[in-house]
Amino acid sequence: MPYPLSNLAPVRSVRNELKIMIPPLVVIRGAGDLATGVAHRLHQSGFQVVMLELPKPLVVRRTVSFASAVYDGSATVETVEAKLCSSVDLIPVTLKSGKVPVLIDPQGEALQKMQPKIVIDAIMAKTGRTSLLTDAEYVIGLGPGFIAVKDVHAVVETKRGHTLGKVIYFGKAAADTAEPGLIEGYGKERLLRSPVDGIFKPLKEIGELIRAGETVASVNDQIIRAEIDGLIRGMLYPGLEVKEGMKVGDIDPRGSKIDYRAISDKARSIAGGVLEAIMHRYFLNNNADML
Predict the structure, then answer these.
(1) CA terminus-to-terminus distance, the chain
(2) Class of 188-252 per CATH?
(3) Are strands 171-172 and 147-148 parallel, antiparallel or unpaired?
(4) Which of 35, 48, 149, 288 could form a disulfide with 30 if both were Cys (CB 3.0 to 4.6 A apart)?
(5) What is the pLDDT of residues 190-230, one digit of tens each?
(6) H-helix or E-strand containing 131?
């Protein structure tokens, strides 16, 4: 039997209180596909999200990364638009317009001016970093390279498997294996890597179906061939300088069955973990008396 309408009043009251108790501004360092999945989830949950990026981000999954705004001025992922801001002063008006500001700020210098209470490190460096606990009141790290309580306040697991998206409040995420997750039995075969140091040139478009053995890109005239049949899910922007062995593209063996413009299941799981971590800190721990 449905609950009577009178029982909804306390829930409505809790929602109103949440707007006050949970800090609305969240700054995400990095704007790749995983960071974008997090930004999209938080934006749709009512947070004001700002993203910090490199001057030339090496973003492979361009169609689902707000980092693309660095090159194109703006980027839309599943109806949410991000806009490149030339200075931190343009962030308030961009947020007011309902868009996600992207600022070129690899060192995080804007944090001093914005003073966010929540910072998410989504750079995915995968190696040990200096403690980030002073960046904000609550700092969340994605994936390996962080230790909860020592470097950040919480870590979200990014490795595919049973614990993907799990929030770790003490300890660290699984170590980086340098091996991509399997999709239909394919792992490293899915990745396109640079054969030499040089300038990257894509010869196929994201979304194209290709066959194993086809030429899909080149670096300094050294060709890169696909190892498997599938759909090109990601490719670096043309003209970027790359190093030998660097990931420059991604082929999905599922082919036309997948939507290369949609946020991945992995990114959605991680985004759910981040939202859980925020709610745990600002709602569950501090406001149990409201329930």
Answers:
(1) 22
(2) mainly beta
(3) antiparallel
(4) 35
(5) 999 999 999 999 999 999 999 999 999 999 989 999 999 99
(6) none
